[in-house]
Write a structure and sequence with these properties.
single chain, 203 residues, alpha/beta, Rossmann fold, seven-stranded mixed beta sheet, 7 helices, 34% helix, binds S-adenosylmethionine, Methyltransf_11, methyltransferase, Methyltransf_Superfamily, Demethylmenaquinone methyltransferase, S-adenosylmethionine-dependent methyltransferase activity
Amino acid sequence: MKANAVTASYKRWAPVYDSVFGRLLHEGRQRAAGHATARGGEVLEVGVGTGLALPLYGPGVKITGIDFSAEMLARAEEKVRQHGMENVTLRQMDAQKLDFPDASFDTVSAMHVLSVVPDPEQALSEIARVCRPGAHVLITNHFAADKGALKLAERLIQPLQHHLGWQADFPIARVLGDPRLRMVERRPLPPLGVMTWLVLERI
Ligand SMILES: C[S@@+](CC[C@H](N)C(=O)[O-])C[C@H]1O[C@@H](n2cnc3c(N)ncnc32)[C@H](O)[C@@H]1O
């Protein structure tokens, strides 16, 4: 993905994002917010978008949400105001260059963002850096299918990636390569198991 295409794409998505992806991707967000809340402490949500997950966290965690898109963040800010969430801080930031000290967070979530950023390995390297030892990284994403109709569909829509705002045939191997992050859980998520839930633990 190219950075300027991503920026333009999410400027277009911002006004309609919640209507299109709110319910569709709800289960992954709920699972991530529940997992982070159960662990407690400091949570970083990378690519927080319009903040759809923010009201799903419990009050006991301190949440920092970052996103590159001013238009998506403005919607997240609106939700924080509406729900009076005093435990949430939002900042405009690039996932590939996080402005936080090493070992700052107990949980980092990256929902539907790693197939969007131009350099997912760099974003994961930054995520690993800001994780405390033993921290969990929660990833929800669509990953490239090995075969079948889904693989064909991915191939057909892949040329539209810069318009859509994500890479449709994103290989899971691209999020499993950082030696500081060990996979501890992997399972399918709705719709129809097309999405994947991953938990990586910071060694
Ligand atoms: C598909 S949306 C996912 C939003 C939210 N996590 C969710 O699940 O609804 C992808 C988000 O990643 C953000 N994004 C893209 N590139 C980014 C970058 N380099 N740094 C931070 N956020 C980025 C986009 O602006 C967009 O809000």
